[in-house]
Structures are given as structure tokens and as C-alpha cells.
Amino acid sequence: MKKVVNILTVTGFMFFGAIQSTFAQEAVEAETFHQILKQRFIEGGPMFMGIVLVALILGLAIAIERIIYLNMATTNTKKLVASVDDALSSGGIEAAKEVCRNAKGPVASIFYQGLDRADEGVEAAEKAVVGYGGVQMGLLEKNISWLSLFIALAPMLGFMGTVIGMIDAFDSIQVANDISPAVVAGGIKVALLTTVFGLVVAIILQIFYNYIVSKVDSIVNNMEDASISLIDLLVKYKK
Questions:
Q1: What is the pTM of this model?
Q2: pLDDT per residue as tens digits for the range 171-229
Q3: Per-residue H/E/C for the chain
């Protein structure tokens, strides 16, 4: 992850340096784009567009919180296993537990629970590791279901706005008794705008969702590999 961040940072500086002069020339156009975006949002109607915006804000809040939590939960499992192995060899169970207390992340917590039951036998330690591993997995996946809800909800709200916009367009035709474009343009425009904004929100949140799911899978795999290594260490220590 650090390598990716460093690469993106260097690329960002290079990109910024290349287009710095271009930004100065296009400042007026950028301002016009924001004005158009704001205008289109208002034209879409406050009801559905506002709800879609709330879904975007809540979804991004959950996504950012999960990304921060998962990055903090990512640890160097190989280094931790090596430290626990050295502690078991030199100081026994209590020394290994102290190493886990000073380490952060779900793997260290699982190791501590397994070591805490090591005096009762390897099987008891294995059960503790499996049981507490499920608890840690639940913490990693916390609130992800809400993010998937907002991904599904945003385009649905957009489509509902589309249907309502089309109904308004047909109501205008009925009142005016005329099918000219000027009569139905307003309702159709509202319908299309709500659909576009709903789909844009869903696309943005889907990207974050896929990253979070892949991050959770990676951490879970590390947890499982580390748990197997811990049981092997306990078996070796008991001999």
C-alpha cells in the first residue's frame, strides 16, 4: 500500500507540474463547469437529488472510515510470527503474550487469545483462535452492508425520479393538449438528470466498495495464514 501511495504521489507531482500553466488558462472554464453542475443539480429537483446527495455523503463517510480502519488493521504478519517465535523460545508464553499486547491489528489480538489458552492445550488454543478470528472478521466487515445499500439505493432513486419526471411530462401534455417538445422538455430533463446523478453516485461508491472488499479479503487471508503459523509454533513449543 505504501508503494502505491508513493507512486501516486510522484505521479501527481509530475502531472501537477505539467498542467500548472494550463490551469491558469482554464480557470474560467472550470468555474463555468461548477456553475453548470450546480445548475443541473438544482434543475433535477430538490427532493430526489437531495436524497441522492445524502446517499453519496453517507456512503463516502462509511468508505473513508473503513479504509482508515483497514489500513490501521494491516500488519506485517511475518514479522509478528517471528517475534512470537523468538519470545516463545526465550521467555515462554508470557513473553509471547507481551509481544502481542504491544502489537496492533487483528492478527495480534488473535495471537493473544490463542496464547492465553495455550496452557489448556493446543486444541483449546486452536478453538480460541478460530472463535476470535470470527469476531475480528466481523469487525473488518462492519458497515460494509450499509455501503452496498447506498450503491443500490442511489440509482433506484434516480430511476424513481425518472419515472416521476416522465409522469410530469405526460401531465403537461394532457393539460396543454399538445405534444410539442416545449411542453414535455422540462419533465424529461428532470427525469434524465436524476438518472445521471444516481448512476454517478453508484459508480463512485462501487469503486470504494470493491477496494474495501479486496482489502478485507487480503487481511482475512493473512489472519488465516498467521493462525496456522501460531498453532505450529505452539505445537513446537509443547514438545
A1: 0.73
A2: 766 776 766 666 566 666 667 778 888 888 999 999 999 999 999 998 888 888 888 88
A3: CHHHHHHHHHHHHHHHHHHHHHHHHCHHHHHHHHHHHHHHHHHCCHHHHHHHHHHHHHHHHHHHHHHHHHHHHCCCHHHHHHHHHHHHHHHHHHHHHHHHHHCCCHHHHHHHHHHHCHHHCHHHHHHHHHHHHHHHHHHHCCCHHHHHHHHHHHHHHHHHHHHHHHHHHHHHHHHHCCCCHHHHHHHHHHHHHHHHHHHHHHHHHHHHHHHHHHHHHHHHHHHHHHHHHHHHHHHHHHC
